[in-house]
Known about the structure:
It is a single chain. By secondary structure, the protein is of the alpha/beta class. It has helices spanning 11-27, 42-51, 68-86, 98-109, 129-139, 149-157, 173-188, 191-195, 208-211, 214-230, 239-248, 262-271, 280-288, 303-307, 318-330, 345-353, and strands at residues 3-8, 30-35, 59-60, 90-94, 114-117, 143-146, 166-169, 201-204, 233-236, 255-257, 274-277, 293-295, 311-313. It is built from 16 helices and 13 strands. A seven-stranded parallel β-sheet has the order 3-2-1-4-5-6-7, with helices on both faces. A six-stranded parallel β-sheet has the order 10-9-8-11-12-13, with helices on both faces. The structure holds uridine-5'-diphosphate (UDP). Uridine-5'-diphosphate (UDP) binds next to α1, α12 and α13. Residues 11-12, 15, 204, 206, 236, 259-262, 265, 279-282, 285 line the site of uridine-5'-diphosphate.
Amino acid sequence: MKKIITIVGARPQFVKAATLSRQFQIAGIDEKIIHTGQHFDANMSEVFFREMEIPKPAYQLDIHGVSHGAMTGRMLEGIEKILLNEKPDGVLVYGDTNSTLAGALAAAKLHIPVVHVEAGLRSFNMAMPEEINRILTDRISTALFCPTDTAIRNLKNEGFDNMPVQIFKNGDVMQDAAMYYAGKAQLKSDILQKTRLRKFILATIHRQENTDNPDNLKNIIAGLTEINKEIPVVVPMHPRTRNILAQTYKLPDFTIIEPVGYFDMIMLLKSCDMVITDSGGVQKEAYFFGKHCITLREQTEWTELVENGFNILTGSDTQKLKAAFETFKTKTSDFSIDLYGNGKAAEKAVEEIRKL
Ligand code: UDP
């Protein structure tokens, strides 16, 4: 493939795309980025492009603030127009957002090969919009890059062995990002000095199943409020969660800050005592930086973290959350086991992509 169009739109995709973009430049492959606009605030988008030195998007679709169907439909239309004009050799999509599905679908209908990075992951919860996006994207892709053996197994179980698709295990590109940017973060971030944080727990909440379900959100807030009495809890709050909290609740006692850039996030992950999250990416990053993680979901796509005792799933249950906190407060683990590759996932993917 000589000319690639990459589709991004949401925060986790910026982090993942940074790793492949760097390798495309090294390999001399022409990459043009379409930013769908799903995340658009400076601290949810622009900061990642700047800090991680991601090439400026060639196209900005500016689509956000509408329902899932409207968003996916508008993206599909916008991306199709660009693809007809650009005629790329392949379209690259990441993860499981509406931008992922729209990009894959627009390309597949035009018979342009689709490359899906972070393929094969499953939560087996079809109520999650992300699960729908990832299953459909995998099914219409030409090349699937899987981070784990579990992801490869999931695809086999769904019969992908008998489909005209290439499947690779390349490792996790988020591990690449964590390793590559950790040194830069140490030099550039002043979040620890600014916030004067020392002993603290880092928490993030933004999954729709938690933010849009008042009982779940109330139970999580109750759990974090209890834990905060013992160790300060700091939440860089996603705009979706903040909007809902502002409408519904009095602001909780724990510390809420604006979403932070990737360098600040790395420093928070490195320095915290423990992580509590419903994010997919942050569960892995906790492990990359040697921290136990409590996951505010009933399932995870990253099952190896649970199997190895690094992660406990509590859903939104206040009691389970407190019990997991008690367990991890005194537990020590050896995080040196290699679950996600050695930081070469993007390099491996680009090596294969150029042969497609
Ligand atoms: N992240 C960040 N600042 C924040 C919260 C998250 O830089 O305030 C990073 C996080 O470290 C990870 C990515 O954003 O690299 C994950 O995105 P998110 O949790 O939004 O999405 P998910 O992984 O759940 O799809």
